[in-house]
Write a structure and sequence with these properties.
Elements: E1 2-8, H1 11-16, H2 19-30, H3 33-45, H4 55-65, E2 70-71, E3 90-92, E4 95-99, H5 107-119, E5 131-137, H6 139-144, H7 154-164, E6 172-178
Helix pairs in contact: 3-4
Amino acid sequence: MKYEQFPFRLADEILRHRDEWHEFQRVLSDLDTDHVLRCHQGICARGGKIPAGGQSAINAYFRERLSKWEREPRLFASGDKNLRKWKMDFVKNGVGIEISFNHAEAIPWTFSRLNIAGESERVQPNAKIVVGVAVFATDSLKRWAKMDSAVGTYEVAIAWLREMKPILPIPMLVVGLDASAWKPTGVSRGTKAGLRTF
């Protein structure tokens, strides 16, 4: 898969020297329509509600391929009932990753979570990061995967990051998954509010 990058506070320079980033780049590059379709079929085979958009399958791909990373570490000790549900998607050796196909209004929380993981003194050692990576769909992937129209995109994330600069000291790399070269598929049914352009 092609992907775009927007570095914030020299995150690209930091990541260039990290094995974790090179590992994650391979995972990004390997993502293709076959992987998404296979993961979608796996979700359907387990029964339950069939996902409307392709984001569940893409999330399943990352969970499968990042199996050596710590998945969903709690940022704070489980005994802290007010903060116990704060988690990051993946972390490994100080590199935190958030895969975000959420509502556009949640974009600032994605950046806040990575920032807290790097800055808060109370974050658990296994969840502490020095650099974050936030992954979003570009408009092209949003259309290809028939994601709901409310899903936030890479383009919107960059706009938010620029506005949040004064309150975000942690270096972050924003990654946009670009499906402009992918052929359309009819696997995802989309939603009533979703994009139905293919």
